[in-house]
Design a protein that fits this description.
With about 400 residues, the protein is of the alpha/beta class. It has helices at about 20-30, 40-45, 50-60, 75-90, 100-115, 120-125, 185-205, 215-235, 240-255, 270-280, 285-300, 305-315, 325-340, 350, 360-370, 385-395; strands at about 10-15, 35-40, 60-65, 90-95, 135-140, 150-155, 160-165, 175. The chain folds into 2 domains: about 10-180, 3-Layer(aba) Sandwich (Rossmann fold); about 185-395, Dehydroquinate synthase-like, alpha domain (Up-down Bundle), CATH 1.20.1090.10.
Length: about 400
């Protein structure tokens, strides 16, 4: 087994009525002035936001609210939030929503702690993040795993760049997780979220590390199978508490890094997908499923045995089913077929409604690799030529 370091400091409050403990728990973390961040109107219409506000008031906590976070969260709204939170003298940031809301809250927390630095400078690498403000989340969508992760993604609408930032300072201190809050999520968001959870696991499962870490592999494999089974039940019955519970918890576990201990991260498909989200405002989970099969087809021969193992353990494709390479390819096809069964796009034309021309594909590849000055991923480090080839495979 490879050496690793793992720290996941987020306190989880999971189960029915978890959100009813917001005021109690925030006070325990020293909160007195809470800046609340949310997305669209669903948390208002459901009464969730009002219930949280009443709790905070009863608990003697002052609060201010910012709504309007969009999918592929924008840096402009984050800058507005930072200005407001600083003026309010916030000492705790609370996200009420899914991954985009939580990522925005993380960025606002960093900005409040570093008022002299433009927030995009941390994402672009021009400044180093060394301190932040405590963040908590009331999760309403099981998908990104941002409630436990060390990552956050922002989109700069001026430069059309979507960039991730990884730092331990991105870890929230609290996550309130009630699966019932996900019952009203539209089916498209549900299946995109499920796909994102699986992709967070796949991007850790396929890395350059070849030494065995049996337990980590088994955790990743069983998590994928659990999410696949639960997703089928949840699509049929949106109020299946057990199914939604499994999906929600698997999302948190996957992106906490527990599914990749000692293996590291590849995340090349995420980076290719970010370019699609930045340019076309493509839904994050859908951008990933539109590319994964093409990525896998392009790179699987780097470690055919790994893909064959995946095929056997996830889909039951045993040695008698063909050569190692044949089984590897069958596993890829089965994974793509599963995404398709959810109604997810598995190509760029399915994602965008049209094929891209060669100039557009080259531009995406050039942006993804910063003009061919950096390589993406670890399983098969991708240069511009590789990225262009994958985009072309996905463009059929």
């Amino acid at each position: 087994m490879q050496s690793f370091e793992f720290k996941m400091p987020t306190e989880i409050i999971f189960g029915r009525h978890a959100e009813d403990r917001v005021a109690e728990k925030l006070r325990a973390y020293g909160a007195s002035r809470v800046y609340i961040v949310y997305g669209g109107g669903s948390v208002v219409r459901s009464g969730l936001l009002s219930r949280i506000e009443c709790q905070l008031t009863s608990g003697g906590l002052a609060f201010q609210v910012l709504g309007g976070v969009q999918p592929n969260p924008r840096v402009a709204l984050v800058r507005e939030g930072i200005r407001e939170a600083l003026a309010f003298r916030a000492n705790f940031i609370l996200a009420v929503g899914g991954g985009s809301v939580i990522d925005s809250a993380k960025a606002i927390a960093h900005g409040v702690a570093n008022p002299g630095t433009d927030i995009w400078d941390f994402w672009s690498g021009r400044a180093k993040l060394e301190k932040t403000t405590p963040v908590g989340s009331v999760l309403t969508l099981a998908a990104a795993g941002s409630e436990t992760s060390d990552s956050a993604v922002l989109t700069n609408e001026d430069t059309m760049r979507k960039v991730g930032l990884n730092t331990p300072l991105n870890r929230p201190v609290l996550a309130f997780m009630n699966p019932e809050l996900t019952f009203t999520v539209p089916e498209k968001q549900l299946v995109c979220g499920v796909s994102d959870i699986i992709m967070h696991t796949l991007e850790r499962y396929f890395t350059k590390v070849k030494e065995a870490n049996v337990f980590t592999d088994r955790v990743a494999e069983d998590l994928i199978k659990t999410v696949m089974d639960a997703s089928r039940a949840a699509v049929k019955d949106r109020e299946d508490y057990d199914a939604m519970s499994e999906i929600m918890w698997c999302g948190s576990v996957s992106h906490s890094d527990f599914t990749g201990l000692s293996r590291g991260k590849d995340f090349s498909v995420h980076k290719l997908g970010h370019e699609l989200s930045a340019r076309f405002d493509a839904t994050h989970g859908a951008s990933l499923t539109s590319l994964w099969g093409s990525w896998a087809q392009y790179v699987y021969q780097d470690d055919t045995a790994r893909f064959a193992q995946f095929a056997e353990r996830i889909f039951g494709i045993e040695a008698s089913a063909g050569t190692e390479e044949e089984r590897a390819r069958q596993g890829i096809e089965k994974m793509v077929a599963y995404f398709k069964s959810l109604g997810m796009p598995v190509s760029l034309p399915e994602l965008l409604g049209t094929k891209l021309n060669d100039s557009e594909l080259y531009s995406l590849a050039d942006l993804a690799t910063a003009g061919d000055t950096k390589k993406l991923g670890t399983f098969h480090p991708l240069n511009r030529k590789d990225v262009l080839a994958i985009y072309k495979l996905a463009n059929r």
